[in-house]
Every structure is written in C-alpha cells, then in structure tokens.
Design brief:
GO terms for molecular function: gamma-glutamyl-gamma-aminobutyrate hydrolase activity; transferase activity. Keywords: Glutamine amidotransferase, Transferase. This is Glutamine amidotransferase, class I. Pfam families: Peptidase_C26. Helices cover 29% and strands 25% of the residues. A hairpin with a 2-residue loop joins strand 2 and strand 3. The termini are far apart. The chain is of the alpha/beta class and 186 residues long. The protein has a domain of 128 residues: Class I glutamine amidotransferase (GATase) domain (Rossmann fold, 3-Layer(aba) Sandwich), CATH 3.40.50.880.
Length: 186
C-alpha cells in the first residue's frame, strides 16, 4: 500500500460566512492549496495558528512529511529589523509567531518546506533576508497587483537552477503582491 505524504498547510483566522451564519471567526486555507496537495498525491492537513505551536511546533511536525506556508497578510517588518511602511497592513502577531516557529523547526529537521507568496517571504526572512514593503515605490505595482484584493497574471522568466530545468520557457503566474523580496537571505 502506497503511503501518501501528509502535508501541513498553515491556516489563518478570518471572518467567514455560510448558510445563515455571518462573520464567524474561521480558520481558513484557500482551496487551491488543499487541492494542489491532494492532486499531487498528498494528504492536506490544515494547521490553525494555535499560539501553543509558537512555543512548541512538535505536535504538528512530528506527524507530517512536509510544510506548506501559504500566502496572506503582510509580515511584521520587525521580523527583519524594519519600520513599517505606511502601506504595510497591520500584521497578525499570532500567525507570524506560529508560522515562524513551524518554519524554524521544519528547517532544523530538514523537513521539505514550500513557501508561497507570504510563505516565500517568511522563508527569506528566516534566512536573514528583507522585504520590499511596497513594490509600488519601485514603479512595479501594476504588474503584481493592479487592484488590491484581485489577482493578475504575468510572465516570469527562469534562469539557472532546477526551476529553469523544469520551466525553461518561464511561466505565467498569478500575483496579488504589494510586497516582495528585497535582500535575499542566505
């Protein structure tokens, strides 16, 4: 019997509505992450930002084969030694603390880890990198997020490394960023 890898997917709190319920605090993960893990043969396990995990992420990491850090709100600039930009959204201290602890321990264990959007930014910060808090300051916002809260599609080029081998002609990606990597970490 083939054992399917269990992948922890970080969730976050947000008001949600369904049926006759409105603005109920809910732990959510966009469905594309869950479906992506499932379609790749994994078992998606949603992990809420439980404050106890900031102190000890072992209860999650002891039972999974990989970690997927998803997108979402801005990281606290204090995590990389910066002051907030006027356009930086109020961070979620709980989510930042839980995801940072999960990531630190996953890296220590050499657990396969993928960061998407905010998750990629957190990986960069964990390795000593910094973020560009508002890429519009560089005149590039139209490419990444022409309208807040809406995705756009744009081309990315790949150069060197595994990604270039897998996607030698580049790729079209979805984007809704107003932040991005500045100094790349080690």
């Amino acid at each position: 019997m083939l054992v399917r890898p269990r992948i922890a997917i970080t969730g976050y709190w947000t008001p949600a509505s369904w049926g006759h319920w409105h603005d109920v605090p809910a732990c959510v993960v966009p469905g594309g992450y869950v479906e992506g893990v499932r379609l790749a043969g994994g078992v998606p396990l949603v992990v809420p930002p439980d404050p106890s995990l900031a102190l000890d992420p072992s209860p999650v990491l002891d039972v999974v084969d990989g970690l997927l850090l998803v997108g979402g709100e801005d990281l606290d600039p204090a995590l990389y030694g910066a002051e907030p930009h006027p356009e930086t959204a109020l961070p979620s201290e709980r989510r930042d603390a839980v995801e940072a602890a999960l990531l630190r321990e996953a890296l220590r264990r050499e657990l396969p880890t993928l960061g998407v959007c905010r998750g990629c930014q957190l990986l960069n910060v964990a390795y000593g990198g910094t973020l560009e808090q508002h890429i519009a300051d560089r005149g590039e916002l139209e490419l990444h997020r022409p309208v807040p809260g809406a995705f756009t599609r744009h081309r990315v080029d790949t150069a060197g490394g595994l990604l270039a081998e897998l996607l030698p002609d580049g790729a079209t990606v979805h984007s809704a960023h107003h932040q991005g990597l500045a100094a790349v970490g080690d």
